[in-house]
Write a structure and sequence with these properties.
97 residues; 4 strands; globular; alpha+beta; four-stranded antiparallel β-sheet; single chain
């Protein structure tokens, strides 16, 4: 059993999907591919307060078991315009191996 979890997650208005990867390298590559595909629909969360019902949240989650038995987790989050949800979901499902 693999103690590490590498996943991409998409969240929009209560809808949630996730996909797991065999390695962090595969996850990082796939995550960047999705960001590149939808870059023109990114929401700059530092510009203004963003209503979370108007965005799609795409996240990259790395949960790794350390030598001391503790888990280390880091997560990268990007926000996109809510209109991107269906196309992003289709893209991820089509491109995911």
């Amino acid at each position: 059993m693999n103690a590490n979890v590498y996943s991409v997650e998409i969240l929009y208005s209560g809808k949630y999907e996730s996909w797991e990867f065999a390695s962090r390298e595969k996850l990082d590559s796939f995550y960047e591919k999705v960001i590149h595909e939808f870059n023109d629909q990114k929401v700059n969360k530092q510009d203004e307060e963003v209503d979370d019902t108007r965005i799609v949240q795409l996240s990259s989650n790395n949960l790794e078991l350390q030598d001391d038995g503790e888990y280390a987790q880091n997560m990268t989050i990007e926000w996109f315009d809510y209109d991107a949800f269906s196309k992003m979901l289709d893209f991820i499902n089509h491109e995911f191996e």
